[in-house]
Specification:
It contains five helices and eight strands. By secondary structure, it is an alpha/beta fold. It has a single domain, classed as Alpha-Beta Barrel (TIM Barrel). Helix 2 links the parallel strand 5 and strand 6. The protein is globular, with a radius of gyration of 16 Å.
């Protein structure tokens, strides 16, 4: 099986999830979010194609990394290859994070027609969901670009049947600790 990537496997990332991570940059995205920090990953014909067995060899050779993050592009646009790689990552003892422009709820709807989406979700430990929205851009949210995006514990969410966010990454209003900040619609972050 092959996968189209935007870049070679990135090692030693500390910004694409918790711990020291490797990042798989998938190529191809249907969301085309305005202000996306990776617009070069949107073209489905861009990047390069690699056999996933080659990528598995690179993953197997990771030393310092505690996990692998799927980003892009949108990994759910290449769900079968990403599913196989996520399973392999878990077999290697690595945790799996994934960024997507889809919401968790939309993925669950799509999974009714495409069960491989649910299979991939089951191999993801933490999902950062939702499109990047420039008007909600914030430097106060960890591991995401805009306040609408959520850091989701997928295992707990699947068990509960609804979204369970990772509490330590929820956005909190610094003026009112313990309360989620209510966004002002007129706020624009550029």
């Amino acid at each position: 099986m092959e996968i189209r990537l935007a870049a070679p496997l990135q090692r030693d990332s500390i910004v694409d999830g918790e711990g020291i991570r490797a990042v798989i940059w998938t190529q191809g995205c249907i969301h085309n979010c305005f202000g996306c920090h990776n617009p070069e990953t949107h073209d489905f014909n861009g990047g390069f194609v690699i056999d996933i067995d080659e990528l598995k060899k690179e993953i197997r050779s990771l030393n310092e990394e505690t996990g692998v993050t799927f980003s892009g592009g949108d990994p759910f646009c290449q769900v079968d290859a990403c599913l196989e790689l996520a399973r392999f990552c878990h077999d290697c003892g690595l945790n799996v994070w994934c960024y997507t422009g889809y919401t968790y709820e939309r993925l669950m709807e799509l999974a009714k027609e495409r069960p491989n989406i649910l299979d991939f979700l089951k191999e993801i430990d933490v999902l950062i969901d939702g499109p990047f929205i420039l008007a909600k851009k914030s430097f106060d949210v960890m591991f995401r670009g805009s306040k609408n995006q959520r850091v989701i514990d997928v295992k707990k969410s699947l068990k509960k049947g609804s979204v369970v966010e990772v509490k330590k990454y929820q956005y909190v209003d610094k003026k009112n600790p313990g309360k989620a900040k209510k966004e002002k619609k007129e706020e624009i972050y550029i």
